[in-house]
Amino acid sequence: MGKFKDAPLGDRLGSAAAARQAMLGRFQARRGTDDPQVAARRAAREAVAAARTLRLAGREAERAAQEAARIAREAEADAEQARQREIAAAEETQRAAEAALTAEARLAEQKAARDARYAARKARQRG
């Protein structure tokens, strides 16, 4: 097999410089910012970005509205529960007052019956 021949250093440096010049040429050949096609593509990208921003803002607004509605429903439910507890407490107070009156009336009846028995016993003893 033959010996591998490396290119001399000067040739390698020259080909690297030529490659750099070719890349620079391709870069400079690109269309500039004043080109109508480039401006049209940029405008299209900006329009897409603006539409995306609007969609995201719409979603955020919808989420905020849903959250506000949920909070309102919870507040309404809490208010309803508080009203129900208040009604139950008032009914319980009324039942307790009625029970107290009933117990007081029963005690009064028992006292009247006891007094009547006592009076009858005294009347029998007197004779």
Describe the structure.
- The protein is mainly α and 127 residues long.
- It contains two helices and no strands.
- The protein has helices at residues 9-29, 36-126.
- The chain starts with 8 loop residues before the first helix and ends with a helix.
- The relative contact order is 0.03.
- The mean pLDDT is 90.
Question: Which descriptors would you attach to this protein?
Answer:
single chain; 127 residues; mainly alpha; 88% helix; 0% strand
In a nutshell, what does this entry contain?
This protein has 127 residues and is an all-alpha fold. It has helices at 9-29, 36-126.
> For the terminal residues, how far apart are their CA atoms?
159 Å
Helix and strand string, N-terminal first?
Answer: HH
Number of strands: 0
Largest sheet: none
Q: Taking all residues together, what is the mean pLDDT?
A: 90
The backbone outline, from C-alpha atoms, is: rod-shaped
- Radius of gyration, taken over Cα atoms and rounded to an integer in Å: 50 Å
**% residues in beta strands:** under 5%
What's the multimeric state?
single chain
Put simply, the count of helices is 2
**Unreliable stretches covering 5 or more consecutive residues:** none
**Structural class of the helices, strands and pairings?**
mainly alpha
User: Helix amount, in percent?
Assistant: over 70%
